[in-house]
Amino acid sequence: MDTGRFDDGEKRIISYLDQHIGLGESIDLLIFSHNDADHIGHGDLVLQYFDVQEVWMNGMDHTSSVYLKLLDTLGEQDVLYAEPKSGETLMRGAFDIQVLHPSIDSPKKDNNDESLVTRISFDGLSVMTSGYVSEKQERDIIQRNGNLESDILILGHHGAKDSASQEWLEAIQPQMAFYQAGSGNSYGHPHEELLLRLENLELPYYGTDELGTISIYIDAENHV
Which end of the chain is more exposed for a tag (fewer CB within 10 A), N or C? Predict the structure, then answer.
């Protein structure tokens, strides 16, 4: 799910994947939540260094050189490509992936609002990803779908103020939440109002700004 920042000179996404699966090995599915350069960075190298079987994107064009380079590499590789919509599901091994957003009748006006939102379930445990959708899209997702309860929530938009609304948190009822934000970033992520919502719900949360790289391990009894 996403490949990180375009300006990571160390290209850490490659070393991470090499450590866990090995260069040249297979990746069944690579999902780009949306096409901002801090989410598709070095995606072209992932496609070149690993045997990626399928790629999902939100279908929104972007003018950045990072996006154009990714498209060029996609065209050179033998990769299945899809722009899934709300209601579609995919099984990959033990993983049941539900697409919750965007909808098929989406106006396609904003790259952030068109983020791919998924609920990934496996062996009785579920993870909700949020992309960059804001409160309005969160409400739309809640109205379109039934049960959204998930054990783990990946908070949207690096913990921005207009993500993870009270309604969204109550619909998902996660056991814990995670966000990705750079230490001392200029955007003020995660926003204090979001953290207050999490604290009022007594929801444990963890962020890369304070902890650095976060790895989530799940044992045979589904303990995280």
Answer: C
